[in-house]
Amino acid sequence: MHDNIKYNNIKGGITIARKLRVWFPGATYHIMHRGVRRKPIFEDEMDYQVFLQILKSALIKYRCVLHAYCLMTNHIHLLLETCDMEIGKFMKHLSECYAMYVNHKYSYRGHVFESRYKSCLVEEDAYFLQTSRYIHLNPVKAQMANYPEDYSWSSYRTMIGLIDDGITEKKKTLAYFSNNAVFRYREFVEDIGHKYVVQEQHIRKMIGEDELWLPW
């Protein structure tokens, strides 16, 4: 489905247009979804665990494949491959279910997430790998962890075989590396010198992160 423009009527009779997301069966996206007004969406360990359970349920319901994720204090990153249902349905279900949990637990009212999540279509192999790296380095760049495997709420520890989170599909990612794939992937991610600065800046621009690695 390649719709381009959707027109929304807002108060006062003003009509605004926004570009619709490109979707087709098998499309892969880098997704970022932030808390409303950039407020925290995770308050304690239970919140992270509940979100992961909701994410697992959504993956099954909408037949999506998760290649990488990272849950930060006030936003999430996903590297997600769709099957035969458009990405908007998956994200609507994920956001609404978690918002219901948060509002009930903390006696909040209203939105938990910003109304429109950010997404970038991932079509090239190199971009897929760089996005996986970018997602897993979020906690390190934000100074929340010294190494990506030190952070509990991402798929990195599953990727390198320390745990199995039950939701991350790592075969496609590791298939890009020939011999000793786990070691090569770990080496690729943890090379935090200046080698990949341009790629990081490009991904950040494409996904709409307008601050450089904010410490949240």
UniProtKB/TrEMBL annotation:
Xref: PANTHER family: TRANSPOSASE IS200-LIKE DOMAIN-CONTAINING PROTEIN (PTHR34322:SF2), TRANSPOSASE, Y1_TNP DOMAIN-CONTAINING (PTHR34322)
A Pfam family that the UniProt record links to this protein: Y1_Tnp
Protein name in UniProt: Transposase
Domain called Transposase IS200-like: residue spans: 24-138
Top-level taxon of origin: Bacteria
